Amino acid sequence: MIAVHNVSKEFPGVRALDEVSFNVKRGEVHGLVGENGAGKSTIVKILSGIYTDYDGEILVNGNPIAFHSVRDAQDSGIATVFQELSVVKDLNVAENIFLGREPLKRGGIIDRTLMNQRTLEVMEFLDEPMPVNEMVGNLSVASQQIVEICKALVTNPKVIIMDEPTSSLTEKEVAQLYKIIGQLRDRGVTIIYVSHKLAEIFTICDSITVFRDGKHIDTVPTTETDSEKIIQMMVGRTLKMLFPPRSVKPSDEVLLAVHDISRSGEFENVSFDLKRGEILGFAGLIGAGRSELAKAIFGATRLSSGELEINGSGGKRFNHPREAFQNGISYLPEDRKGEGLLLQASIKENMTLAILKKLKLSKTRSERRERRLVKKYAEDLQVKMVSIDQIIEMLSGGNQQKVIVARLLMTESSVYIFDEPTRGIDVGAKYEIYKIMNELTEQGKGIIFISSELPEVLGVSDRIACMREGQLVRIFSQADANPEAIMRVLAGGDA
Q: What's the rounded Cα separation, in Å, for the pair 239 and 230?
């Protein structure tokens, strides 16, 4: 269906794709994997018509193509559902699905009856009924994802590219997405499925293509490989363990004690303590209140009741993140782009954002000191970049995340809150972040670690706090924790 022949793409100082060649068969689900910066996003944007300047040749259905726009790609039968949803929340479902392709009556008037009818038809095919006049802003993230898929389907695509489609979905919603993908495959639609979650790749993909450092490493049938071989191809080495071993045990000293804190409508009467040298993992289904709890502890939102005790000093409740920061608490937000980065600023500016006062000398920042510090952290965290002056939007997701982690490390806090720090990044970058967390605990720091991936919580945490419907219902020791017991608690079983 798609043949990529010797495709190369360069950005200033970076060769993103280096003579890449691979084939995608008609009617298959084709997995695309690789570390952040491996070239996956670049080839997706070329196939989608976003990047039009490249070397090499691409054939679709045997015909050479040269897209000049996204519309060209769609007209050639390729539709893309991007990780970052592009719905317009102030338009309704039908208006979003036909945005830019509205059926018209004579005189250029939108034929809303036909538009609604065709919307109902495509939703009926997906077995996903929803009101065509409902404002998309009122829908869940999963339903917005369905709207994106419907938007792709109304172009009658031969190929649909799905870029990290499950990053914000619950397990039930993921299962529904798998069902939709199966229906599309049965209909003869070819799917290119980009994901960092190897369990997903092995569940739904017929073939897997591996990228590393802008090169095509191999394309293999899913039945002829396993996750260990794929990881080795992705990172160029064998990861004996997905999680680095922890060399320290938490002390009995409490760094942070949380006493019966509540925030109306989000969580209530939550109490726990965090010890020196400990990683305290938080598990919970989407909507359990974990991120809301983290933001309230950090002062990004205000508590309704309760208080915090930090290093033995009690009676604290922060009204602004600045207050939490001054008391030794740093926070890595779940929404990397929306809450963590200044996308049009440089790597240097993003990395030193939290310590500008420390860098000031005689009312001006010490440029030389700042650059030296940023280069050190970028080197320590192995940030792939052209220079520290590069605009951060140009980095891959994993490297953007490393910059935020570096920002937190510069604060030299005593308590770090990591909210979904590995979402959307590859297995190698995850391993590096786990190592950093271990190094922080070796220095006597405490870490609150929030993740929606249960194996990850089990793999890195000393204890695991389980939240359900805004309540902390149980804390497991590492010895007592296992996936079955935790899921039983999260789903409403014994607490």
A: 11
pLDDT of residue 362 exceeding 50:
no
First-last CA distance in the chain: 51
Question: What are the tokens at 445?
Answer: 């720091």
Distance CA 132, CA 115 (A): 9
Rounded to the nearest 5°, which phi and psi values hold at 482? -155, 160
CA-to-CA separations, 443 to 230, 247, 277, in angstroms, rounded: 34, 12, 7
How many whole angstroms separate alpha carbon 54 and alpha carbon 73?
15
State the DSSP code for 413.
-
Cα dihedral 416/281/422/30 (nearest 10):
180
Q: Is the pLDDT of residue 204 over 50?
A: yes
Q: What is the DSSP letter of 224?
A: G
Residues 6+ apart with CB under 8 A from 110: 102, 103, 104
Report residue 280: phi and psi, to 5°: -100, 110
Residue 35 in tokens: 């570390």
| Sign of torsion over alpha carbons 349, 353, 355, 357 | positive
List Cβ neighbours of 13 (8 Å cut-off, separation of 6 or more): 386, 387
Task: For residue 247, give the nearest of 219, 279, 275, 225 by alpha carbon.
Answer: 279
Is pLDDT above 50 for 309? yes
| Phi and psi torsions of 465, nearest 5° | -95, 130
Q: What single DSSP character describes residue 187?
A: T
Q: DSSP letters along 273-304, please?
A: EEETT-EEEEE--TTSSHHHHHHHHHTSS--S
Mean pLDDT of 108-134: 87
Specify the residue for token string 């009995």.
Answer: 252
276 and 255 Cβ atoms separated by less than 8 Å: yes
- Closest by CA to 88, choosing from 137, 122, 131, is 137
- The three-state secondary structure class of 82 is coil
Residue 332 in this model has a pLDDT that exceeds 80: yes
Q: What is the dihedral of CA 174, 294, 255, 399, to 10 degrees?
A: 60
pLDDT in tens, 268-295: 999 999 999 999 999 987 678 999 999 9
% of the chain exceeding 70 in pLDDT: 95
Helices and strands, counts by H and E, the chain:
17, 22
Binned at pLDDT 50, 70 and 90, residue 339 comes out as confident
